[in-house]
Amino acid sequence: MSWENMTLEVDGDGIALLTWDMPGRSMNVLGAGSLKDFGEVIHKVVSDDAIKGLVITSGKPAFIAGADLSEMEGSASGAGAPKSEEERIKAQYEGGLKFNMLLRELETCGKPVAAAINGTALGGGLEVCLACHYRVVSDNPKTQLGLPEAKVGLLPGGGGTQRLPRLIGCAAALPLIMQGTALNPQKAEKQGIVHKVVPEAELISEAKCWIKEEGDAEQPWDKKRFRIPGGGPYDAGGGLPWVMGNAMLRKTTFGNFPAQKYIMRCVYEGVQVPIEAGIRIEQRYFVKLLNDPASRNMIRSLFLSSQELNKLARRPKDVPTTDIKKIGVLGAGMMGAGIAYVSAVAGIEVVLIDRDQESADKGKDYSVKLLDKAISKKRQSEEGKAKILGLITPTTDYDLLKGSDLIIEAVFEDRGIKADVTAKAEAQIADDAIFGSNTSTLPITGLAEASARPENFIGIHFFSPVDRMPLVEIIRGEKTSDAALARSMDYVKKIRKTPIVVNDSRGFYTSRVFGTYVGEGVAMLSEGVKPALIENAGKMTGMPVAPLALNDEVSLELAYHVREQTKKDLGDKYKAGPADTLLEEMVVKRGRKGKKNGKGFYDYPEDGQKRLWPGLSDIIQACDDQPEVDELKKRFLYIQALETARCFEENVLTDVRDADVGAIMGWGFAPYTGGPLSLIDTVGVKAFVDECDRLAQKYGERFMPTPLLRDMAEKDETFYKRFNPKKAAA
Question: What is the pTM of this model?
Answer without folding.
Answer: 0.90
